[in-house]
């Protein structure tokens, strides 16, 4: 009985093991099928997501084919008489505008490199299509565009410029008057002011599309008032051409490509370090003029090497002013709810949070000079780049002045404005100019050629709208 019982017991145990193996195989098979299905579904989602992302990237990708198609559409609209401009005929009829390459395309903003009559230019438009801009509403209520007199155009253009730049109508009388006629002369030149015939619908529509682009308005307004902004050379429809200048790069220790600077005077090519000092002086000149040349301060809220360029005479030029604001608009931007100072930062422009009122001060705390010292000058004049020269007395003095400049708040509170606040900023500004001029003189260079700079003979102008 015992052996039989053992045998019987062992057989039952063996049968149970077989059943467990069979169940395990079934469970593994179902689990494997489920895992396989999940992997297949996950792969399908990943591949479809990849296709969607790829299409999204390609839709905003800067391609020559799409850029040329946009310009062809512009020329088609010119042929239909919908748009016009002083470079349309050269672009669309005479083939004097040669397409080179697309530089930037994002959210409709288009930047194209081209050559116009043999000279390099940059073509820009905030939106890809002319139809994307708001039309001039008055045209909907006029039987013909010819009923609008040149004075009417002045009026509507001035209102749009004020709105674009955030300038109130009351600002027109600040800084020495001028009125609409004088403002128009500064904006559009004698050709528009002295025009004795009416404007066509194409001219009005094209002008209106340009005035809706803040950067165009800024450049067009300031180009007759400042050497530190890119020059507008012409336009066709909603596209406008500006001078071609090589932008700076954060990865370049000199920020700008100095190899393109031509020989200067008898001394030949400037040494790289001397050119850096001259460019630094031009930065300081730009800061001073943006603070003092206009009725309101001009605030730069996106200061980085890529937004500046230099001309052949080493003049610093602001080439991207999408984030530049006059004082009234700057105050509107900063005047926001807050719980801490971090809520009062708008890119490179910042103010303080009043925690009792839980409101940001509308007055900027830092300044253009402070941010340029922090983001441009400190890397330029760091001991790492200067090497053995870093220990020279003037270089040490320059490093200390740059350090102080980057830590000095340049803004003033409302209560300090009338008392002439911001004195520390002016003092360090003058110290930087003095040190840089002494460095140029120490190197045995001449003041001729735009290297040294001071405020003597500075001419004040007013921007009035």
TrEMBL record:
One of its GO terms (cellular component) is endoplasmic reticulum membrane. InterPro entries: FAM69_kinase_dom, FAM69_N, Kinase-like_dom_sf. Residues 25-167 form the FAM69 N-terminal domain. It comes from the Eukaryota. SUPFAM superfamilies: Protein kinase-like (PK-like) (SSF56112). It holds the Pfam family PIP49_N. Residues 406-419 have a biased composition (Acidic residues). It is a single-pass type II membrane protein. Keywords: Disulfide bond, Endoplasmic reticulum, Kinase, Membrane, Signal-anchor, Transferase, Transmembrane, Transmembrane helix. Residues 405-426 are annotated as: Disordered. Belongs to the DIPK family. This is Divergent protein kinase domain 1C isoform X1. It comes from Parambassis ranga. The gene is dipk1c.
């Amino acid at each position: 009985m015992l052996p039989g019982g053992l045998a019987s017991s062992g057989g039952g145990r063996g049968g149970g093991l077989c059943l467990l193996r069979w169940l395990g195989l079934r469970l593994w098979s179902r689990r494997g099928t489920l895992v396989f299905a999940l992997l297949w579904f996950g792969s399908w989602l990943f591949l479809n997501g990849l296709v969607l992302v790829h299409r999204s990237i390609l839709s905003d990708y800067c391609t020559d084919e799409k850029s040329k198609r946009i310009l062809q559409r512009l020329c088609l609209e010119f042929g239909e008489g919908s748009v016009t401009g002083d470079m349309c005929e050269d672009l669309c009829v005479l083939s004097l505008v040669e397409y080179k390459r697309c530089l930037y395309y994002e959210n409709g903003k288009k930047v194209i490199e081209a050559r116009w009559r043999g000279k390099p230019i940059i073509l820009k438009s905030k939106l890809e299509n002319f139809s994307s801009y708001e039309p001039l509403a008055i045209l909907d209520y006029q039987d013909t565009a010819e009923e609008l007199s040149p004075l009417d155009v002045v009026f509507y253009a001035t209102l749009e410029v004020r709105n674009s730049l955030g300038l109130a109508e009351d600002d027109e009388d600040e800084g020495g008057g001028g009125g609409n006629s004088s403002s128009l002369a500064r904006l559009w030149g004698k050709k528009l002011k002295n025009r004795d015939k009416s404007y066509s619908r194409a001219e009005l529509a094209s002008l209106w599309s340009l005035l809706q682009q803040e950067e165009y308005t800024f450049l067009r307004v300031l180009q007759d008032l400042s050497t530190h902004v890119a020059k507008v050379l012409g336009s066709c429809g909603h596209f406008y051409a500006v001078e071609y200048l090589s932008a700076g790069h954060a990865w370049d220790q000199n920020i700008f490509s100095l190899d393109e600077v031509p020989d200067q005077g008898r001394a030949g090519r400037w040494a790289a370090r001397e050119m850096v000092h001259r460019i630094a002086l031009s930065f300081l000149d730009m800061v001073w003029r943006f603070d003092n040349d206009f009725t309101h301060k001009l605030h730069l809220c996106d200061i980085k090497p890529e937004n500046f360029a230099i001309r052949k005479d080493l003049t610093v030029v602001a080439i991207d002013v999408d984030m530049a604001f006059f004082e009234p608009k700057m105050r509107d931007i900063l005047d926001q709810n807050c719980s801490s100072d971090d809520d009062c930062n708008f890119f490179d422009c910042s103010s303080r949070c009043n925690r009792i009122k839980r409101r940001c001060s509308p007055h900027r705390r830092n300044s253009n000079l402070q941010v340029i010292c922090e983001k441009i000058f400190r890397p330029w004049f760091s001991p790492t780049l200067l090497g053995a020269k870093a220990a020279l007395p003037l270089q040490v003095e320059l490093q200390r002045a740059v350090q102080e400049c980057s830590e000095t708040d340049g803004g003033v509170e409302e209560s300090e404005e009338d008392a002439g606040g911001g004195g520390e900023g002016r003092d360090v500004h003058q110290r930087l100019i003095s040190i840089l001029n002494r460095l140029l003189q120490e190197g045995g260079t001449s003041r001729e050629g735009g290297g040294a700079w001071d405020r003597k003979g500075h001419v004040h102008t007013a921007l009035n709208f």
